[in-house]
Amino acid sequence: MNDRQRHHLETLAGEGVEWQCPLSRHTSFAIGGPAEALVRAGNERVLQGVLRLCREEGIPWRVIGRGTNLLVADRGVEGVVLRLVGDLAGSGEKSASDGTLALCAGGGAGFARLCREACERGLTGLEFGCGIPGTVGGAVCMNAGAWGGEIGPLLRTIRIVDADGAEDIVPSAEDFSYRSWKGSAAVDGRGVITLAEISLRPGDRTEILARVADYDRLRRDKQPREHASAGSFFKNPPGDSAGRLIEACGLKGLRVGAAMVSPLHANFLVNTGGATAAEVLRLMRLVQERVLQATGVALEAEVHLLGEMP
């Protein structure tokens, strides 16, 4: 960006702009070079202004939420990296005539915290999400799910802000599939999810919290916590498990530099300390090659790549 563009961005976002911000501080992988500009947008007016500036000036931009499910290039990212804060990270509720209750959550709201708070209040439907990191906006885009539950079927409306304004859309269950929302392609690079209405029903609080406790125990037993990671790295192929395939190929503990296939859960690539994006990518490709050779299954990365990769 040139000086004029930087000044315009600072005029729009004020103290919400951080220049040359290391994204390793803002990703669960603890990997990544600097963002040319990290912008914290606290309301739709600021967000729309930034998106309009980026469109008019040809400045690339990307939303990172809480930096989970993300691998950032070592050389960093040009343009604007957005995080939603303030009004765009809050939540509320409203009742419906059919007996359901809609949680109205900002795109930047923490998904796991939102789910846990709903369960604590005796609302059922989001038990599966209590251990899923990231934001509501990210959960919608990837149709986040676990333990047989997904967010897609629970969504009543999704609000999208772009350079021209805001639009509320009503998705259908058919719009969602495994780790995918078909509307995300249209949103990507054009707009940002700023609000989602999630339909829930009252349930037995004791039973709800018991399910949450079971899921928490399973996560503690099966998922690595000692090292930084981006969560499950590969999508599960139809009818199988990526972790099972990787483990069957004897790849647990495989390392490239400081990047390693977790010895606890084979579908976690972890940063053992100081790993680079280039090392993670080499490890990813090595795992894909060996699994393909041994099983004929081509593993697809679930983790998103941000920036120019080697």
Verbal overview:
It is globular and about 55 Å long. The chain is of the alpha+beta class. The longest helix is centred in the C-terminal third of the chain and has 19 residues, at 277-295. The model has no long low-confidence stretch (mean pLDDT 93). The strands form six sheets. Strands 6, 7, 8, 11, 12 and 15 form a six-stranded antiparallel beta sheet that branches. A four-stranded mixed beta sheet has the order 1-2-5-3. The protein has a four-stranded antiparallel beta sheet with strand order 16-19-18-17. A hairpin with a 2-residue loop joins strand 9 (145-146) and strand 10. It folds into three domains: 3-86, Uridine Diphospho-n-acetylenolpyruvylglucosamine Reductase, domain 2, CATH 3.30.43; 90-221, Uridine Diphospho-n-acetylenolpyruvylglucosamine Reductase, domain 3 (2-Layer Sandwich); 225-306, Uridine Diphospho-n-acetylenolpyruvylglucosamine Reductase, domain 1. It has helices spanning 3-13, 44-57, 111-120, 136-141, 184-187, 205-222, 242-248, 277-295; strands spanning 17-22, 34-41, 61-63, 70-72, 77-84, 91-95, 101-106, 123-124, 145-146, 149-150, 155-162, 165-169, 176-177, 180-181, 191-202, 228-229, 255-256, 259-261, 269-271, 304-306. It starts with a helix and ends with a strand. It has eight helices and 20 strands.
